[in-house]
Amino acid sequence: MTRKSARLAIRNRRGGSAVELALGAILMITLSALAMNMILLNFAMCLNDAVCRDAARAAAQTNNKTAAIQAAQTQLRLHATDGVFVSQPVLTSTADPDFVYQDYGGTPPAEQSSYVTVTTSVTVKVPAPIVFFGAKFYAKNGTLIMQRRYTFPIIKEQFYG
């Protein structure tokens, strides 16, 4: 082997290593961004689940719809976020079907229970929107709206199972 061909062989090995490093870096950056998105979406989903459950529980301990809405909104304020990637949880609406306070006027029909239904939502801004083969993992402008609904029996009355 001549000196020139030896230098060429070494240069080719270095070039191959650089290509492997570049492809590996692209793959790792993509996987890291996807992992970051999944972690953030999981956090938002768990937060919204806890907020909705707590708001419905608080609303079920009241005596009327107005007090139920106030109790639910108080619980929402207790679960504050930074507002950068995950918005502050809010009641989706205070009207049917998103917020239902059904106490049947204090006298529920036989074998039925009074109940309250609460729907909350959070908006998630995905930090690294990734598109694979045209499938989008985010809504418009890189945001995703997550909703959760819980129904609890109103505690002041007898519960029928």
List keywords for this structure.
rod-shaped, alpha+beta, about 45% helix, four-stranded antiparallel sheet, about 160 residues, two-stranded antiparallel ribbon, 2 helices
Brief overview:
The chain is α+β, with helices and mostly antiparallel strands.
Structure write-up:
This protein is an alpha+beta fold and about 160 residues long. It is about 45% helix and about 20% strand. It has two helices and six strands, in the order H-H-E-E-E-E-E-E. The chain has helices spanning about 5-60, 65-80; strands spanning about 90, 100, 115-125, 130, 135, 145-155. The strands form two sheets. Strands 1, 2, 3 and 6 form a four-stranded antiparallel β-sheet that branches. Strand 4 and strand 5 form a beta hairpin.
Mean pLDDT: 84
Write the H/E string, N to C.
HHEEEEEE
Global shape? rod-shaped
Q: Please, how many domains?
A: 1
Q: What is the share of helical residues?
A: 40-55%
Low-confidence stretches: none
Number of helices: 2
Rg value: 27 Å
- For the secondary structure, the number of strands is 6
Secondary structure elements and their pairing?
Elements: H1 3-59, H2 65-78, E1 90-91, E2 99-102, E3 115-125, E4 131-132, E5 135-136, E6 143-153
Antiparallel strand pairs: 1-3, 2-3, 3-6, 4-5
